[in-house]
Amino acid sequence: MSDKLLEVKDLRTSFFTHLGEVKAIRGISFDVEKGESIGIVGESGSGKSVTSLSIMKLLLYPGKIVGGEILFNGEDLVKKTNKDMMAIRGNEIAMIFQDPMTSLNPVYTIGDQIAEAIIKHQKLSRKDAHEKALEMLKLVNIPDPEKRIHNFPHEFSGGMRQRAMIAIALSCEPQLLIADEPTTALDVTIQAQILDLMKSLNAKLDTSTMLITHDLGVVADVCSRVVVMYGGLIMEKGSIRDIYYEPGHPYTMGLLKSIPKVASDEKQRLIPIPGTPPDLLNPPTGCPFYARCEYAMRICNTQQPPYFKSENGKHESMCWLLHPDAPKNEKYEQLKGGVRIGK
């Protein structure tokens, strides 16, 4: 039996606007194993959130999945009806959204909102659902849960609201938890607490986690593997060690260079990636990072590179500089860390 809980194969998602087709996702493939935490990283507009909404089948008009498969426990979610997905969402796959204040209903108590999912999917009585809601608040370390269960969202701090969202998401013990920028609006102290909580819950409940973020620094402490997205494509994927110590794509290198190095005593400037993301209404024919890449070659503008794999086949990078016949660039080779790449 396969250990792969989720398999995304050649997924393509577009938005059909009055200006034309915006190709938000242009053929991506990755998987999530049972009990694993995987990070999806990239700038705004890279396709991270659209990927998660495609998996949940929560795309709003004019968005549409136009190709590919999303296999969850071997079943293709793309072919599921909305009724089928209503039984899966919140029960087998749960999602935490960026802003808990807009995700929580302001006129219902926190306890009622947790209990609602439990009653719907687990068919418990209101009393039993209320007891389980209290257990969930304790699990996510909400102080004084017996009192707080009767509070409304506006009576919670930002960090506590995010904990409540996690409690709702995990209340039915889903197999897969998708967290879309779960710490964006929180200060760094609360952010660290939420990430530690997610990590401990992942170990305790054996729930697979897909963490979506623009911050590679956040991923390092939570995930075992990373998928780097840009321009609706996956630029690189591999283990934490692969991505942080032996990056193969210049975009990944740019993201790593933009992370502040707290341990250093020297004053240093952050190094931004110059330029802007590509227009996905008219996506480039070659590498989407071509216009912003300091190592770009002529072929990068005309032909999309294939994935070049490491010797163990688990680290893949989409960059022509990894081709055996590509000219050697000393600066690139230094940043690449000497990883051996083959066809």
Shape: globular
Order of helices and strands: EEEHEEHEHHHHHEHEHEEHHHEEHE
Gyration radius, in Å: 21 Å
- Tally the helices: what do you get? 13
The largest sheet, given as strand count, sense and whether it forms a barrel, is:
9 strands, mixed
Mean pLDDT over the full residue set = 89
Which spans of ≥5 residues are poorly predicted at pLDDT below 50?
Answer: 338-343
Count the beta strands.
Answer: 13
- Which sequence of strands runs across the widest sheet? 6-7-8-3-9-10-12-11-13
Described by its quaternary structure, the protein is single chain
How large a portion of the residues is in β-strands, by DSSP E?
Answer: 15-25%
Helix content: 25-40%
Give the N-terminus to C-terminus distance in angstroms.
29 Å
Query: Structural class, from helix and strand content?
Result: alpha/beta
Task: Describe the 3D structure.
The chain has 343 residues and is of the alpha/beta class. 33% of the residues lie in helices and 23% in strands. The chain has a nine-stranded mixed β-sheet, sandwiched between helices. A four-stranded antiparallel β-sheet has the order 2-1-4-5, covered by helices on one side. Strand 4 and strand 5 form a beta hairpin. Helix 4 packs parallel to helix 7 and helix 5 crosses helix 7.
